[in-house]
TrEMBL record:
This is ABC transporter ATP-binding protein. GO terms for molecular function: ATP binding. It comes from the Bacteria. It comes from Streptomyces spinosisporus. SUPFAM superfamilies: P-loop containing nucleoside triphosphate hydrolases.
Length: 219
């Protein structure tokens, strides 16, 4: 570190030397990632590069063969396919998840429903929602407990343009409050939004340049 410069904040999420194979097919081959509080990171890469595999390992829903993930703080994870109970309403999902997180009320849940613009579906069954609205509920549930680190696997698939813009407003608010966000994305035109583009190629993550500063990739 240069003398007089501000020390970098300790990472909120750090992955070191992650390896993962499915049978004899190696997918991750020594992937490293360091995420600081307030940082917005995109994981990019070709179809089948292993982005979802990486996110599942970061989220702790899939074990790595080798390597470690260190998380300091709470985690929210929004997988690619919504994990909802078709026979519960939006409101019931909010209640169950709020109880699971021991939240005192539904205020944040209701605020997220309003911010994402689907209040009119609060009494609807999840099984009867459109794909985009299911995705909104999925995102709401991942955000309900205001996690320190949010992992999003292509979160805006199926969002209309207005919702897409609301999504980025929400992300801006999270970042200003020091929350870190890791997003898998395929959209090239939005890449300037990110602090870091972490490119997954040959099972490893390498930084791609963006217009923002303070990049941290690797240990
Ligand atoms: N459960 C599994 N069993 C066997 N192979 C798997 C499994 N899950 C993923 N794979 C394989 O691992 C590789 C990486 O898959 P993954 O879904 O992580 O890629 P991705 O980068 O997220 O792809 P995409 O951009 O298409 O969503 C692919 O070749 C995929 O077929």
């Amino acid at each position: 570190m240069a003398q007089g410069s501000t020390p970098a904040p300790p990472p909120v999420l750090q992955a070191r030397d992650l390896h993962k194979s499915y049978g004899r097919h190696p997918v991750l081959r020594g992937a490293d990632l360091t995420v600081a509080p307030g940082q917005l990171v995109a994981v990019v890469g070709e179809n089948g590069a292993g982005k979802s595999t990486l996110l599942k390992i970061l989220a702790g829903t899939l074990p790595a063969d080798r390597g470690e993930v260190v998380l300091s703080g709470t985690l929210g994870y929004c997988p690619q396919a919504p994990v909802l109970n078709a026979s519960l309403t939006v409101e019931q999902h909010l209640r169950y998840f709020a109880a699971a997180h021991r939240l005192p009320d539904l205020d944040r849940g209701r605020e997220l429903v309003r911010l994402l613009g689907y209040e009119q579906y609060e009494a609807s069954l999840a099984g009867e929602l459109s794909g985009g609205t299911r995705q909104k509920l999925n995102l709401t549930l991942a955000l309900l407990h205001d996690p320190d680190v949010l992992l999003l696997d292509e979160p805006y698939q199926g969002f209309d343009w207005d919702t897409y813009l609301r999504f980025w407003d929400l992300v801006d608010d999270l970042r200003t409050r020091g929350r870190a966000i890791v997003v898998i994305t395929h959209l090239v035109f939005e890449q300037d939004r990110f602090d870091l583009l972490a490119d997954l190629t040959d099972g490893r993550l390498a930084p791609r340049t963006t217009s923002r500063k303070d990049h941290h990739v690797g240990a």
